[in-house]
Amino acid sequence: MDSRFNAGVNTEWANSSVFARGTEVTIEQLALIGEIVNRYDCLSRTELANTVCELLDWVRPNGKLKTVACRQFLEQLDERSVIQLPVRNRRGGKKGKSAPIELTSLSAGSTPLAGTVHELQPVTLRRVSSTDDRLFSAYDHRHKRT
Question: Where are the beta strands (DSSP E) in the chain?
Fold first, then answer.
């Protein structure tokens, strides 16, 4: 095997055929996966899976990344010592108490809106980002209490 393709991959195991959900993975692809995992070891397993999917064009017919399947494949490679994934992040789920929602003057709101969308134009919608998350939670909490 060409030495430029073995960075980060246990080459002893990689000499046999490797399949991810029925698709054969080439040694070059394995080497790329190993390089990604080594270079970006600060990323979560899901972020690594997304990166691999993007680089190898592993997408479903609807165009979405095959993140779950790829993450499972990466974990199989990790179990077989082909690659070494970062330690699993156990942040998921709401196992402990969540931080209390801080109600501030920013989330106090104003007079409730009334009317049709046409009457209220211009209306702008935007996705809530993580930086807006606490403020959105405060708005949501206030709305549910009234």
Answer: 18-20, 23-25
β 23-25/18-20 pair status:
antiparallel
Query: 75 exposed, middle or buried (CB, 10 Å; 0-12, 13-18, 19+)?
Result: middle
Helix (H) / strand (E) containing 35: helix 27-39
- Measure Cα distances from 72 to 28, 79, 102, 103 in Å: 19, 10, 38, 41
pLDDT by position in tens, the chain (length 146): 333 334 445 555 545 556 566 667 788 888 899 999 999 888 889 999 999 999 988 888 999 999 999 999 999 889 888 888 888 766 555 455 556 666 666 666 667 778 888 888 888 877 766 666 667 677 676 666 55
State if pTM tops 0.85.
no
